[in-house]
């Protein structure tokens, strides 16, 4: 059927959508979420069908196209297109197999991942795949296959250097900006560390969000390679260069229901590492009763799985189990965390000692992985070589020459949270602190967040400040203060 284009002025951010009037759909015997082949001259694309119930939404003899479909066809309003029924992707049948508990081989998993990357599957179909993985689990063979498929459906940073080091923390700890200290330490020691990181999904800041305070993080692959070849390290946003692109699409579906199977998590992390040619990877697994990993037994199991899958991928793994029961560092939020990082690298007296200690420990572990003395980490930091390397990375990534904490602006609106009694800090809930910082505006507002003056086990007197909330707007600070009344994030005994 030939139809006129109606530009819907709507974008999905992924999958292609075409809307037909319900009368046209009835004549063609089409149904909601059928696939349609849409042609305009030599251009063609496959889109998912939505149905309009009124002439006002989409008139008869018209095809309402979302932006992605318009772009694919190079079409504009009132152009003529031809639509016809297209069969569902073969990968849908493989998703059904996984729903029944069958083990999938690499070709089938690759087909699913490839269709996810190319937006050939609906959100419902991707959700079924994720649910099947969550319900039935993934075997080691399937996890390796999923990881390889995620790597092979995206770009890859190919490096000649050896070894290539990388690190990852599975999350759940506020602050914990160790990566931005460890990378310049290792690069200053002559090692190669191409660090690609995600932006925050549920935390007040990811490494990419914090690094963006100091330098550009959305660099292209060629630029990243030049920086790594010249300087030895970088800290960039992986989403800008299409590395393991299926990962972000899968996470987007997982997040609303907090569905994250072990196999999916392993693949998500190791695909990112494999896509930058990593040969040696350290994984930090924080343990906290309220976090992602509740106890040491769970952490040790997860560590074994990382080693098993890493071995199959040719990546040497080292697992470090750490205390995740409270925030690391003083700053929580992009600008405040960036200040902490620079204080540590500059050996400033304002440096949070817990962040410094953990960063040196992780850097030491990674140095040992490649046969070097772990004491080199302290030498690189103490001598100022790590700070100098950080300045080189910032400059190479097009930073605004922000190399000192005092140059970093934080939110001008603030509120001091004071202790209601004297005693010791018995607990600081990561989730509560993260929630308050996000409501204050982090990570979108770089200057928003929380600055901690006390950590667990430290004494506090009645009326003393425990933390300060910063916001870039008075309204968001007001929201944060309201949440503070309902959230019991700090326990003093």
Q: What would your notes on this structure say?
A:
- The protein is built from 18 helices and 18 strands.
- The protein has four domains: 2-86, Barwin-like endoglucanases; 91-137, Transferase, Pyrimidine Nucleoside Phosphorylase, Chain C (Transferase, Pyrimidine Nucleoside Phosphorylase, Chain A, domain 3), CATH 1.20.970; 165-237 and 272-405, Nucleoside phosphorylase/phosphoribosyltransferase catalytic domain (Pyrimidine Nucleoside Phosphorylase, Chain A, domain 2, 3-Layer(aba) Sandwich), CATH 3.40.1030; 409-492, Pyrimidine nucleoside phosphorylase-like, C-terminal domain (Aldehyde Oxidoreductase, domain 3).
- The protein is an alpha/beta fold and 493 residues long.
- Helix 6 (140-152) crosses helix 12.
Distance between the termini: 73 Å
* DSSP summary: helix tally: 18
Number of strands: 18
State the secondary-structure class: alpha/beta
Number of spatially distinct domains: 4
At the fourth CATH level, what is the homologous superfamily of the largest domain?
A: Nucleoside phosphorylase/phosphoribosyltransferase catalytic domain
CATH class of the largest domain: Alpha Beta
Mean pLDDT: 94
Rg calculated over all Cα atoms? 25 Å
Helix content: 40-55%
Q: Could you list the spans in which at least 5 consecutive residues all have pLDDT below 50?
A: none
Walk across the major sheet and give the strand order: 1-5-2-4-3-6
Sequence-ordered SSE layout with sheet pairings:
Elements lengths: L1 E6 L9 E5 H6 L7 E6 L2 E10 L9 E4 L1 H7 L6 E7 L4 H9 L6 H12 L5 H14 L3 H13 L12 E5 L9 H10 L4 E5 L9 H5 L9 H11 L1 E5 L7 H10 L7 H13 L5 E8 L8 H18 L2 E8 L7 E2 L1 H12 L7 H17 L6 H7 L2 H12 L16 E6 L4 E6 L1 H10 L9 E4 L6 E2 L4 E7 L2 H13 L3 E3 L1
